[in-house]
């Protein structure tokens, strides 16, 4: 069957969907890299809520998706921005997500790390003491759940901090308190404009120096860093300056194949939102890397970059819409409804191109189901087939 996808100027263009998926199976644990998928949440489509209501989550479908990722050998990065943290999922919902997912991880033997932030603070100016206390509250929840902690960038800290020393003080306090090594997360303003100037400066060289000072003061409490700046060379330069034993987890959804493959001076592990829709394929690629087959790794993963760059195009923070859209087409959930109504954040042409790219990669386990669902979406938007 040929689908008619929206084209420029109100036109349509024909597209012939593939009939067979890429052949991917579950397999052995990954060994050469630590790989986390930042997983999305599945909304409850029957909940009578508004965009401003607390998140209504379909817990069964949400946990089933995490079991899917674990079955392929991936770790789950929970309650991160892919889960609409700060964009529909409030702290109460995030805390429940952390507890439920951590319990599920224990039950199935899956790896999990969870985001620690300050998003329970009400809007308005906050003191550094209030920011520190909010971090402490969330850190306690994550540690009590048995998960590894990811110290996320905080909008409140960015607003309250006046100098780089303020970051050194807050992070130093938290790292001294942490019972196990944590991941430090540097999220760039392309993902969240409220984080402009994080680490005390809009000059990325100056910010990097402060970031490295935090790590150097507490290397035994830092498992790794997650860098989401969409700047491959900056990440490479940064990871070469890390103390021995501190990992770099790439969060660069534009340049991840080359960063994970690495060079003769090192490589990046991964904590990526794009590994939500790419989970099985990404795991298969890393298994090739486990055997020393770098060319095979790149052959599988390089073709996915066009899809990732499409999903993460500006405004980058709305990449979550494409991620959930592809999960619906792939059959991981029964609907295309998102927390906060965010399914409306991307245009029909954007979604149609995402379908086309994902289908071309063979990402849909049942191409006929994906085709049928895409056809229904087009029909709802008035695109005749």
Explain the overall architecture:
The chain has 385 residues and is of the alpha/beta class. Helices cover 42% and strands 12% of the residues. Helix 5 runs parallel beside helix 6, helix 11 runs antiparallel to helix 13 and helix 13 runs antiparallel to helix 14. The radius of gyration is 20 Å and the shape is globular.
List the helices and strands and how they pair.
Layout: E1 3-6, E2 12-15, E3 35-38, H1 59-71, E4 75-78, H2 91-108, E5 112-116, H3 128-145, E6 148-151, H4 155-160, H5 164-177, E7 182-187, H6 204-217, E8 222-228, H7 232-239, E9 247-250, H8 256-261, E10 269-272, H9 279-290, H10 294-301, H11 305-311, H12 319-329, H13 348-361, H14 367-380
Parallel strand pairs: 3-4, 3-10, 4-5, 5-6, 6-7, 7-8, 8-9, 9-10
Antiparallel strand pairs: 1-2
Helix pairs in contact: 1-2, 2-3, 3-5, 5-6, 9-10, 11-13, 12-13, 13-14
Structure, briefly:
By secondary structure, the protein is α/β, with parallel strands linked by helices. The chain contains 14 helices and 10 strands.
Shape: globular
Strand order of the largest sheet: 3-4-5-6-7-8-9-10
Poorly predicted sequence stretches spanning 5 or more consecutive residues = none
Count of helical stretches: 14
Largest beta-sheet details? 8 strands, parallel, barrel
What Rg do the Cα atoms give? 20 Å
Order of helices and strands: EEEHEHEHEHHEHEHEHEHHHHHH
Intertermini distance: 10 Å
